[in-house]
Specification:
heterodimer, A: mainly alpha, 2 helices, rod-shaped, B: mainly alpha
Chain lengths: 92, 218
Amino acid sequence: MKRLLPLIVLCALLPGALTLAQAPAGPPSTQGDFVPVNQLPAQTEQLPAAPLLMGAYAFVWVALLVYVWSLWRRMTKLEHELADLRRRLQKL
Amino acid sequence: MARVFLPLVLVAMALFAAAPLVVANAPPEQTMGLVQKIFYYHVPSAMLMFVSAFVCGIASAVFLFRRSAAADRVALAAGELVVLFGAIVLVTGPLWARKAWGVWWEWDARLTSSLLLWMIFLAYLLVRRFGGPGSEKLAGAMALFGMANVPFVYVSVNYWRTLHPKTSVVMTLAPGMRAAFWFCVAAFAALYVLLLTLRKRLEDRQAEVEQLYLAAED
């Protein structure tokens, strides 16, 4: 079974590797590349960018903080459970 | 490990705290303007979603073929991080698209395949949570297929007609943008290593608790 491991991982990755190998050759396309400017372009559209940008950054920070908080909460609960179990085992 | 952990926490926190300042100093983009700065958090999150899918897939393969419980714990930790970073990608992307493309969502190859990748790993976590005894093997197979999906998601923008920027955009960044981008990649990578270590530690503790329950029963 252990001998099959490299073969199966290879089979799982092969379609992706083939796709990457067939990627268009030559210099990368510049279509859609970002062009930097010194000043922000004048806002002619009605939809402001700042709330979308702030919303995106706020979501990232909130998602990461909530995840860290959930890790901390789960870890605290497990530590209590572990201490309780050790106490019970010592009594036995 | 404990010796490495505290410096890692400090480095990750410092990089992540400085990232908004670095992004604020990066030059704005000509046509998209301010909203293009979502790129600096969106793309590193996508990179780490891909990396985490590979970590989960490879660890699952080791678990399936070598019966390594430690590898299974790494796979579960990485699977959870695929869903976390995937959620960031799938929320920040539409916020950028609303301004740049005029729509929140487009059912094109990149967006749809990214959503599918995220759903595979969400299903992985649901199977792990509610699948009952033995579900870790089924989940491990799901993780392998999730990992195999990553290259398709990556090259999808080069093969299909899409509004999404192509993969070449990262390699052709202007110097001011490039420095800010790679700084954010470093910040997210440090954070990823930290979160993976913490999540793995949680699984180690869980395994310890289960061992003690078995000992108590005996």
